[in-house]
Amino acid sequence: MRKVSIVVAAAAALLCFAAVALAQTNTYTVSGKIASGGSKKKPKPVGVDFGYTVGTEEGTLASPVKTYKIHLDGVKGDANFVAKKCPASKLNAMTTPDPSSCPSASKVGSGSVEALVGTAGQPVTDQTIKCHLDLTIYAGTKNSLTLFLKGRTPTCITNVDQAIDAKLTTDSKGGNLTFTVPDALLHQVGLDISVTKVTSKIKKLGKGTKGLFVSTGCKGKRNVEVTFTSESGQTAKQSASAGKC
Questions:
Q1: Are 163 and 92 in contact (CB under 8 A)?
Q2: What's the rounded Cα separation, in Å, for the pair 165 and 137?
Q3: Which residue segment(s) compose the domain that 184 sits in?
Q4: What is Dmax (Cα atoms) for the chain?
Q5: Is 169 helix (H, G, I), strand (E, B) or coil?
Q6: What is the pTM of this model?
Q7: Do 56 and 25 touch, CB atoms closer than 8 A?
Q8: Does residue 10 lie within any of the structural domains?
């Protein structure tokens, strides 16, 4: 009887934890900065700064985010403006991806990624494992940027060398940067990797009316909007002003 009671109690605890994990919702903030000016008739080369944070209201480890879509109001991206390229596929084909093989002129930006490693839905404490990754951005193909992430122990749970292909597209309102995170950056040694903070800065590269990113103008304030799709299937949008148009 005692054994049955223990089993029942354990099962109830697991069901309770599962219910909490399912009820948990990621929370996000977004930031950005883009110079004003420019129009469709006379685009203006600009640099692009953007970042975001991920967490939960419960103070638990957020569900890893699988896909990001970053929208920039009144901005158009053209990776083909940069003559030298470093495709993500080239780096990931190496036994150990090495960005030193990339042409120096293909580097267009940098940043950092902070993450926590554990089990999604569990409380975040001072003992939760942290992971710091350096971000380097390259012109990848004529339609994409390469996001290269590098981490080393002891500031990360394992050594990381991973390139991500980030597609550049344009719609009626501006430009989009879309990418999917590979499984190796979502899970390691049976644990979840949950990004908590990202900062990035893409350099102003251009001449005349052409550039890697150009401002084509917009009305009022320019927004940066990020669509986050977590591994658990939750999709959320968050935006912030990136300055005047």
A1: yes
A2: 10
A3: 26-244
A4: 82
A5: strand
A6: 0.89
A7: yes
A8: no
